[in-house]
Amino acid sequence: MIVSARLGERTGVDGKLGRWATPALRVSLAVVFVWFGALKATGDSPVAELVGAAVPWVDRGVLVPALGWFEIALGVALLLGRLPRLTLVVVAAHLTGTFLVFVRAPTLMVIGGNPLLLTVNGEFVLKNVVLVCAALVLLGEASERRRG
């Protein structure tokens, strides 16, 4: 890292990466939300069964498209940068809620009851740990800018 005369000011490659990393993370998270939401809203999502298994008391035909539109709205809010702290808290909470399927339908998530042997569905949901962390990083950045 190259540090200029002002303590902590980044220049060169570090400065460019620092300037673009946060917006790139926000946009990529938004794209994932809009894309996955659109699949749910149009009835083309391969995870409809998982959603239904996580929340079996709600009609899947209503839940999946409604969830899709909700995810699209979150993605658009991320893209626009409106109410960033609220949006990111909701994004993190929503993503955390996806782990409910491990409790509600463990046979869809693990093989033979072994939590170390994930099914494809289990791997798909587990990757949300990274997305939750991305939302938390962006939330920290937004809070820091607000205090700024």
Structure, described:
This protein is mostly helical and 148 residues long. It has one domain (23-147). It is 70% helix and 7% strand. The chain contains 7 helices and 4 strands. It has helices at residues 12-41, 48-54, 60-80, 84-97, 100-104, 120-126, 128-147; strands at residues 2-3, 10-11, 110-111, 114-118. It has a two-stranded antiparallel sheet. Strand 3 (110-111) and strand 4 form a beta hairpin. The two termini are 23 Å apart. Mean pLDDT is 90; it is low at 1-7. It is a multi-pass membrane protein. It is found in: Membrane. Its main location: membrane. It comes from Saccharothrix yanglingensis. The chain crosses the membrane at residues 20-42, 62-81, 88-112, 124-142.
The largest pleated sheet is described as: 2 strands, antiparallel
User: Order of SSEs, N→C?
Assistant: EEHHHHHEEHH
Q: Tell me the domain tally.
A: 1
Number of strands: 4
Number of helices: 7
- In spatial order, strands of the major sheet run 1-2
Global geometry:
globular
Radius of gyration: 18 Å
Helical residue percent band = over 70%
User: What integer is the average pLDDT?
Assistant: 90
Distance between the termini: 23 Å
Summarize the entry for a quick read.
The protein has 148 residues and is mostly helical. The protein is built from 7 helices and 4 strands. The strands form 2 sheets. A two-stranded antiparallel ribbon has the order 1-2. The chain has a two-stranded antiparallel sheet with strand order 3-4.
